[in-house]
Amino acid sequence: MVNAVHETGVLMSTKSEQRKAVLREKLVHSAKARIERDGMAALRARDLAKDAGCAVGAIYNAFEDLNDIVMAVNGLTFQALGETVRGSFDGTEPPVDRLILMSHAYLGFAVDHTNLWRALFDLDMSEDGRVPAWYRAALGDLFANISRPLSELFPEMAEQELSLMTRAMFSSVHGIVLLGLQNRISGVPPEQIEQMIAAVLRRIGNE
Amino acid sequence: MVNAVHETGVLMSTKSEQRKAVLREKLVHSAKARIERDGMAALRARDLAKDAGCAVGAIYNAFEDLNDIVMAVNGLTFQALGETVRGSFDGTEPPVDRLILMSHAYLGFAVDHTNLWRALFDLDMSEDGRVPAWYRAALGDLFANISRPLSELFPEMAEQELSLMTRAMFSSVHGIVLLGLQNRISGVPPEQIEQMIAAVLRRIGNE
């Protein structure tokens, strides 16, 4: 549907295309603000239409469905998260320290933007082919930042093993942050999350 | 509200109490089957009432709200999860092997009962005092199983540090299982989840 719209768009007037691009940007801006404030589950098409000053039906001309809008918001979130993580280290630190700095930056982002961060993981992506290439690329950039210190720590690891370890490390830190922020389940007060991350990473780095 | 009902219940006829207990059991049984099949988000009061052959209003006489019913289902899930984890080792294994066996059992439970397992973590428990004592006790039992091999691995750790490491270990394995099962995000095919868990646990155990 989205592809069909884009292909037809080549034949449409530039003005109509521009109007649609402006509407798309308005809708994503509004969805981002609403998700940040109320969480993804509270997102309603009629509220977005009201914010953007358009009819509800116009949303489905600009996007396939609400999931597509959340995916666009997640793109912005991923970009901001990537910048936060990259800005947390300068590359001269010993590898375990760098992993801890990145993980603490990840925790900080999750604390500061909890609803946007949750939407990265809660968005339904159960259908095949729903994950855009740029989404996979952004994930790849994040993983590359984790792989570098890991390859310094474990120079003997083959690429495939390093790739698995990178995903395992990210998932471990994600789990500690996720259950730590839902502190009713993990039973750990938020201020101890940083300690937990550092303890696990130092053990893995054999320090 | 639930407490008020229970307190009033002491003055009610035994027959009325028994009827309510039967209804509660029917509703929990129905909710468990529906969550297992369709996930927690699809749970509707009118469907439960239909299954149990009662009016929708009767549900709110037996339980405070749908969350309370999900909490009761989560109690059964936690019990089953605990049995699965306890049944995965005999206690003679080296500690890292025991941690890996338990974690693989945890993964197996999550694969076999994905929706019930997700409900353990997705239930909204944002209000204070909504977590029953038996829920905390079940969580405590699970953590005790993790603490034992960890205390063998790290005999030098003080109790508070061991408690933090236990929660960090559980959260790490949970993160690997969670993102592994949502394989669109972690990019890891499910069959590699066991390898990731073992790799992280062996590193932590310094093997």
From TrEMBL, chains A, B:
One of its GO terms (molecular function) is transcription cis-regulatory region binding. Gene3D superfamilies: Tetracycline Repressor, domain 2. The keyword Transcription applies. Residues 21-81 form the HTH tetR-type domain. Keywords: DNA-binding, Transcription, Transcription regulation. Residues 44-63 bind DNA. InterPro entries: Homeodomain-like_sf (IPR009057), HTH-type_TetR-like_transc_reg (IPR050109), HTH_TetR (IPR001647), MT1864/Rv1816-like_C (IPR025996), Tet_transcr_reg_TetR-rel_C_sf (IPR036271). This is HTH tetR-type domain-containing protein. The lineage of its organism: Bacteria, Pseudomonadati, Pseudomonadota, Alphaproteobacteria, Rhodobacterales.
